[in-house]
Design a protein that fits this description.
Layout: H1 32-39, E1 65-69, H2 74-79, H3 86-98, E2 105-109, E3 116-119, E4 122-125, H4 130-147, E5 151-155, H5 157-164, H6 170-173, E6 177-179, E7 185-189, H7 192-197, H8 203-213, H9 215-223
Parallel strand pairs: 1-2, 1-5, 5-7
Antiparallel strand pairs: 3-4, 6-7
């Protein structure tokens, strides 16, 4: 169970029993504004030390769709807003092509601080550890409780495994509507950043695949 939110989580343990897990403790029953203020001072893991700031979710208070990725990137860390960099532009394009109103979407990440390593003058993305994911997860579940969306789109393997369990495989289940641990409809697909990292000659096909994966979300929203 996540700290204070009363919802189950898919990633709840590490393999080494000697590791003491720390978890964020969102204020019980808080709305998004209060959660955002509380998350700004989160010290549940050490990622805050190297980050510019906490990057909390953004969007309508009662968004019908939540899009959740792995963690903020370099630009998101500097601006304090999720999905405002190149991957965010890919996501916006995919939503438009899929016919999903961007204003109906709340965007966030499982991990709220940017994990990176230096390479010259650049800051290079590093995948968060399981301990860091577990520590930060309660913020995501508190967002879910505050918003209560109709559908959740898990962007990439880190988000999908965090929510649906370490055995979940995006490549096997992508584009399918599934029932999540708290009863919401969930769909997993690739992270938009993977399109940018992929073979330039295949980007068009990868984008088409992402748009196709989002079709069940569009259908769900149209059915209401």
């Amino acid at each position: 169970m996540c700290g204070g939110c009363g919802l189950g989580v898919g990633l709840s343990a590490v393999s080494d029993p000697s590791v003491r897990l720390r978890r964020a403790t969102p204020p019980e029953g808080a709305g998004l504004d209060a959660l955002r203020r509380a998350a700004a001072g989160c010290r549940a893991c050490d990622l805050w030390r190297g980050a510019t700031q906490t990057v909390f979710g953004e969007g309508k208070r009662r968004a019908r769709v939540v899009m959740v990725g792995e963690q903020p990137g370099d630009r998101e860390d500097r601006e304090g807003r999720p999905f405002v960099g190149p991957a965010g532009r890919v996501l916006d394009d995919a939503l438009e092509r899929a016919g999903i109103d961007r204003d109906a979407v709340y965007v966030t990440n499982i991990v709220k601080h940017f994990k990176w390593k230096p390479r010259g003058k650049r800051r290079i993305h590093m995948t968060p550890s399981r301990i860091e994911i577990v520590a930060c997860q309660p913020w995501f579940w508190a967002e879910m409780k505050a918003i209560r969306p109709e559908a959740v789109v898990l962007l990439g393997a880190v988000a999908a495994k965090a929510v649906l369990g370490p055995g979940f495989r995006v490549t096997r289940e992508r584009g399918r509507m599934l029932e999540g641990p708290a009863g919401q409809m969930m769909l997993a697909t690739i992270h938009p950043a993977s399109i940018l990292r992929g073979d330039p000659e295949l980007r068009g096909q990868l984008m088409d695949d992402l748009v196709a994966d989002l079709a069940p979300v569009r259908a769900l929203l149209d059915a209401v």
